[in-house]
Amino acid sequence: MTKAKQSPSMQITKATYKQLASRFQPKRNVLLNSWRAFWVGGTICLFGQILQNFYINVFDFTEKTASNPTVATLIFLSVLLTGLGVYDNIGQYAGAGSAVPVTGFANSIASAAIEHRSEGFVLGVGGNMFKLAGSVIVFGVVAAFVAGIVKSLFGLA
Amino acid sequence: MEYLIAFAVGGLICVVGQLLLDVAKLTPAHVMSTLVVCGVVLDFIGVYDPFIEFAGAGATVPIVSFGHALYHGAIAEAKQNGVIGVLTGIFEVTSAGISAAIVFGFLAALFFRPKG
Fold first, then answer.
1. Given A54, A109, A130, B17, which is the most exposed site by the fewest CB atoms within 10 A?
2. Using the beta-carbon criterion (under 8 Å), do A72 and B113 form an inter-chain contact?
3. pTM score of the predicted model
4. Which of B17, B70, B112 sits opposite A99 (nearest CB)?
């Protein structure tokens, strides 16, 4: 019926479209990216460990309670670096290395808040703060809820 | 040694995230959501606590531990108050992280201008 269906060249175009398009996509150097993610992400965790030991030794936190101030400190530093425009540069270099640690979570909140400030504090900052981090919270909470219900109904000792 | 393990384990989790980005071609939001759900599942089967014991901040700093903390809070409350504890306890442990991120994020929007 339609000409496009009859013409074989159209089908070839469709079949090879991805191939054609991939030529124009930037090449991803998986090994280099992984190495960068590894050492930057590792360094952030190393810093977290130093902070945690600092809170345990200086402020008498236990190993369990120390993670709260540690995470809060990391988040504060991450937000500060985001505001100064440094964290985005780190993110350009490190990819997942700066996104996967909890600092990346804070960065996504702070950068969305700063970026949408021009739309006002209620609609802009308040409404967009969780634009990226929201999906993490939603899926985390739903998964934890389902797992928690299953565990407490069937397997709680 | 403690520091070396934290560095190596934390780094490896970030490599997993990077591979999800590069090889599986997921968006960052998908990667983060996947890792959080992984944290819940790993804690559900009882693997994540020994893992934290082993790796310290290498296991608690990556976003995976956010899922672990959500599930942990839910279960701890459920043990005390029954099934309703799953709802009341879910943010128990992560409260510090989320509150800090909201407050500092808001303050950042007050004091900083967007760059570029």
1. A54
2. no
3. 0.85
4. B17
